[in-house]
Design a protein that fits this description.
alpha/beta; Enolase-like, domain 1; seven-stranded mixed sheet; 15 helices; Pyr_nucl-diS_OxRdtase_dimer
């Protein structure tokens, strides 16, 4: 006989946890299925450990910009201390604290690999091979996330490259690290390991880094990486990889005809939905693809409206905070409330924790123009703001607003500069709330802070 719950959530990462907790808070019984660590990728192998690796270097960089402080610096980062701090922040890869939280949230944790076994049914196989059948009265929620995409480069898989897990969890600093990719994972980890003493080469297929953002973002980050000692190779591809036995020195042949040798090879070239072994075929969906959903996060093509998918697994927006946003909506919808997801396509905030930081929300200028919107943009040098000058010397930056001229609302905002991530939520509120420029004139920024750039942007834009 199956164990019956109102809701069965497959995947115990932050998205699954939020979906389950929201439904449980509405009085529903919830089973949360997870075969690894509760808390998922973000807590142990992505967001938290990568930022733990990046923050010490950022803090040191900032101190060096302040007269009187930089003179007190006696040496480089202590790599062993940074790695110990990372381990502490991921709770030494134990999820006991997460399990206690789940208990307080009234979630029944079921350990094992969960997969669909027909309508409203989930089969869970534990590590010892035992199986348990679960049945959902109301809904099954898929929140299994995504996994790294490993491209079909000859010899790459056999070389046993790092992905984000090894890239955030390595126990030793490699003497030479070669990174494939030009996205967020690639640039963040390239800078992190360079700051800990590794010789880093970044190989990027395209003409710029971070191509989904405003063009100046990639330019500024590439400049910062090069200044820190990272070798950045643009318009370059890896054509083959050699690593006999999958260990030791790795040799990468490049499209330029050159070769690069390294002690570790990191691949940061995108992610794909984790649906291969999820039992999608038992409900008429195709394994290996993202689960398409409507704005209530219900799976399309499944009769009865009982199957939901939120987070990376649906392919709408591969960011932890947006997965959690979708999860909260899923919990509300299952509980009978009216809810609809739209921020994940209109007002998505993202911070890249390099130094300088990058913070972005909403549409870029190119995206807005492609959508046929009446666009006007305005830029301002963050280094001319008094708050930035007080923050330290030589801390320039750039800010940009994308404005709908007809409605006079902000469609998108991008900031590059020191700790600009802490300024992003104001821009997110402006975009999500469609706050008019006329109203923003009355949102007075404190002096002397970097947030005064909002006033300068409005002054540049004009009345």
């Amino acid at each position: 006989m199956a164990d019956v719950f109102d809701v069965v959530v497959v995947g115990g990462g932050p998205t699954g946890e939020n979906a389950g907790a929201r439904a449980a808070a509405a009085g529903l019984s919830v089973a949360l299925v997870e075969h690894e660590l509760l808390g998922g990728e973000c807590s142990y192998w992505a967001c938290i450990p990568s930022k733990a690796l990046l923050r010490p270097a950022e803090a040191l960089w900032l101190v060096k910009q302040v007269p009187g402080s930089r003179e007190a610096i006696k040496g480089p980062l202590v790599a062993s201390a940074v790695l110990e701090h990372r381990d502490a922040l991921v709770n030494h890869y134990h999820d006991d604290s997460q399990a206690k939280w789940a208990e307080r949230a009234k979630l029944t944790v079921v350990r094992g690999h969960g997969k669909l076994a027909g309508p409203r049914k989930v089969r869970v196989e534990s590590k010892d091979g035992a199986t348990r059948e679960l049945e959902a009265r109301r809904a099954v929620v898929l929140a299994t996330g995504s996994r790294p995409r490993i491209p079909d480069i000859p010899g790459l898989r056999e070389a046993r490259p790092w992905d984000n897990r090894e890239g955030t969890g390595a126990r030793q600093v490699p003497r030479r690290l070669l990174v494939l990719g030009g996205g967020v994972v690639a640039v963040e980890l390239a800078q992190a390991w360079r700051s800990l003493g590794s010789e880093v080469t970044l190989v990027v297929r395209g003409p710029s880094l971070l191509s989904r953002f405003e063009p100046f973002v990639g330019e500024r980050v590439a400049q910062a990486l090069r200044e820190s000692g990272v070798t950045v190779l643009l318009d370059t591809e890896a054509t083959s990889v050699q690593r006999p036995g999958g260990d030791g020195e790795v040799t990468v042949k490049l499209s330029t005809g050159a070769e690069r040798r390294a002690d570790a090879l990191l691949v940061g070239m995108g992610r794909v939905a984790h649906t291969d072994a999820l039992g999608l075929e038992t409900v008429g969906l195709k394994p290996g693809e993202a689960v398409r959903v409507d704005d209530q996060l219900r799976a399309k093509g499944v009769e009865g409206g009982w199957l939901y998918a939120c987070g990376d697994v649906n392919g709408r927006n591969l960011l932890t905070h947006m997965g959690k946003y979708q999860a909260r909506l899923v919990g509300d919808v299952i509980a009978g409330k009216k809810a609809s997801a739209w921020a994940d396509s209109k007002a998505t905030p993202q911070v890249i924790f390099t130094h300088p930081q990058v913070a972005s929300v909403g549409l870029t200028e190119a995206q807005a123009r492609d959508a046929g919107l009446p666009v006007r943009t305005v830029e301002y040098d963050l280094g001319k703001v008094t708050g930035t000058v007080l923050f330290g010397e030589n801390l320039g930056g750039i800010t940009k607003l994308v404005v709908d001229e007809k409605r006079r609302v902000v469609l998108g905002a991008t900031f590059v500069g020191p700790e600009v991530g802490e300024m992003l939520h104001a821009a997110t509120i402006a975009v999500a709330g469609e706050v008019s420029l006329d109203t923003l004139w009355h949102a007075v920024p404190s002096f002397p802070t970097m947030s005064e750039v909002w006033l300068r942007l409005l002054e540049t834009y004009g009345l």
